[in-house]
User: What shape does this take?
Amino acid sequence: MPAPRPHPQSTHPLGRLGSRAHRERGEATQFAVLAGTAILAIFTIVQAWLYYAAGNTARSAAQAGLQATRVQHGSARAGQQAALQNAAAVGGITNLQVTANRGPAHATVTVTGTAPSVIPLLTLPPIRAEASGAVERTTTP
Assistant: This one.
């Protein structure tokens, strides 16, 4: 019967200690890669939420501005102020710009801006929301 061959790990100069150190280095590298991936995923989720919240804020501000613009005796200036106040109260939009137009039969309010970025060097598309509707007017029966 032939003599048993030594296990390849036992031929390492440091014996089992060497293979254990190598294994621990691999585990540390694996942990670093997984932790980095998890942090990136968390930042991506937070960034998506901030972008979504900024869009909701813009839509809400545009609706508030439209309500002030379209009422009888309302004005484009009143709608612009209402939209700015609404967006400032909620927050979450930078570079905020509001335009309001009121014609004889139709009013429109547009809110644009950018969502805050938590990921460095990431340029997000601008946020834009528009609300439009008929102008209230008095009619005789």
Summary: The mean pLDDT is 87. The chain has one domain: 9-134. The beta strands are 94-102, 106-114, 127-134. The first strand starts at residue 94 and ends at 102.
